Amino acid sequence: MIPRRERHRTTRPLVLICDVSGSMEPYARMLLLFAHALAQRHRSVELFAFSTRLTRITRQFVGRSPDHALSGFHDAVRDWASGTRIGEALRTFNVDWARRVLRRGPTVLLISDGWDLGDPELLKAEIAWLKRSCFRLIWLNPLVGSPDYEPLTRGMRAALPYVDDFLSIRNMASLEALAAHLATLPSRGRRLVRPADRGTVRARAGHDPGAVEESQWS
Q1: Where are the domains of the chain?
Q2: DSSP state of 51
Q3: Among residues 88, 31, 26, 14, which one has the least CA distance to residue 55?
Q4: Strand-by-strand arrangement of the 54-56 sheet
Q5: Domain 16-180 is of which CATH architecture?
Q6: Dihedral angle of Cα 150, 175, 109, 166, to the nearest 10 degrees
Q7: pLDDT digits (tens, 9 = 90+) for 20-62
Q8: Which pTM does this prediction carry?
Q9: Measured in Å, how far apart are the chain's first and last C-alpha atoms?
Q10: Is 75 left (phi over 0), alpha (psi -120 to 50) or beta?
C-alpha cells in the first residue's frame, strides 16, 4: 500500500477583545457568555476585556463553567462599567500581548459600541497596526442593526477604515450569522507584520504603524 499524505484543516486561532465599559453594560452578560462559549469550543483562543485598561481573562474562562467564569471575570476586571479608552487598550495589547498571541495569524474580534473617550489619533494608529498584524480584524458592534444607527462617533470614524468586517452582535441571530461568517474565512493567507517588531518601536514618538516592514507568514 502506498502511503498517502492528508491535509489536516485546523481552526484558525481567535482573539477576543471585549469592551466592558458603562455603555456596554446592557450587553455584558450576553457578550461574556459568548466569550465563554468561544473558550470552550476553540483549542486556541485568547480573551481580553477593557474599559479604561486592558485585562487578559483567558485563564478565568477556559475550562470553567459559565458561573465560575463570570465570577472570575468580576474578580479580575477592576474597571468594569467605567469609561472607555479603546486606543489605550489596543496600545497595551499591541505592546504587551501581540508578540505572544498574534504569532499564528489569528482572527481578532473587537467588540465595542465605539463610544470612546480617548484620543482618536491614538486609536487610529493602534488599530492600523493591529490590522496589519492579524489575519482578519472584525469589529462587532451591538448597535449595528438598530433603527437609524450610523457609525458617527469619533472612535468609529477613526477605526472603520482599518476594519475588515463591521458586524452586529446584539442577539442570537447575529451570533449565528457571525459563526457562519467565521466558517467561510480561509485558513491561510494575508501579509502580516511580525508582532515582535512592535516592541522595538513602541517608545518612538509619532511612529507610523504603516512603516513597519512586512513579512509573509504561512
Answers
A1: 16-180
A2: S
A3: 88
A4: 54-56, 45-50, 14-19, 107-111, 136-141, 165-168
A5: 3-Layer(aba) Sandwich (3.40)
A6: -30
A7: 999 999 998 888 898 888 888 877 899 999 999 999 999 999 8
A8: 0.82
A9: 32
A10: alpha
